[in-house]
Amino acid sequence: MSNAIEELLPHRPPMRWIDALAECTDTTAVATVSFADDSLAVAGGWVLETALVECVAQTVAAAMGHRARARGKSGLPISGMLTSVSDFRILARAPAGRLLRIEVRELRRLGMMMMISGIVSCEGQTVASGELTLYA
Q1: Measured between alpha carbons, how far is 57 from 59 in angstroms, rounded to an integer?
Q2: What string of H, E and C letters represents the secondary structure of 59-124?
Q3: What CATH number is given to the structural domain containing 23?
Q4: What's the domain count of the chain?
Q5: Cis ω on the peptide bond leading into residue 13 (within 30° of 0)?
Q6: Judging by beta carbons within 10 Å of its beta carbon (0-12, 13-18, 19+), is residue 8 exposed, middle or buried?
Q7: In this predicted structure, what is the pLDDT of residue 75?
Q8: Is 25 exposed, middle or buried (0-12, 13-18, 19+ CB in 10 A)?
């Protein structure tokens, strides 16, 4: 993808928790991140479970920013809000320093509300998955 992540997300360090938007279609997106040991998202060498949820939400935000730019819109990235987390399961711990892949898919949209499914994987193993509802 050609856009720098800073152009797509309203988040700034230390709370910007995805490094790159790797793929983006009208209803899906893939982002990647590798957390350093000294990141706010890491404790004891492991990525915090709450950070995995936020990575899914930030992937959605980056995809929305990319889509807006593709339609010719410029300026600040779109702001949104995570409104609910449902059936989010942590299946394994994600180690710091390893590349995480975050995949999202839009399930439903009603006006400004959107339900998405997300999967976070590390080296081909799913570490977390679930659904988020966002106002965006």
Answers
A1: 5
A2: HHHHHHHHHHHHCCCCCCCCCCEEEEEEEEEECCCCECCCCEEEEEEEEEEECCEEEEEEEEEECC
A3: 3.10.129.10
A4: 1
A5: no
A6: buried
A7: 63
A8: exposed
pTM comes to 0.94
Task: Extract the tokens encoding 136.
Answer: 């965006």
Please answer whether residues 100 and 34 qualify as being in contact, where contact means their C-beta atoms are separated by less than 8 angstroms. yes
**Under 8 Å between Cβ of 30 and 23:** yes
Range of the domain at 50: 5-135
Q: Are 98 and 46 in contact (CB under 8 A)?
A: no
Are 40 and 11 in contact by the 8 Å Cβ rule? The answer is no
Q: Report phi then psi at 95, rounded to 5.
A: -75, 145
Query: Which tens digit of pLDDT belongs to each residue from 42-78?
Result: 999 999 999 999 999 999 999 999 998 888 887 666 6
Distance, CA of 35 to CA of 59 (rounded, Å): 15
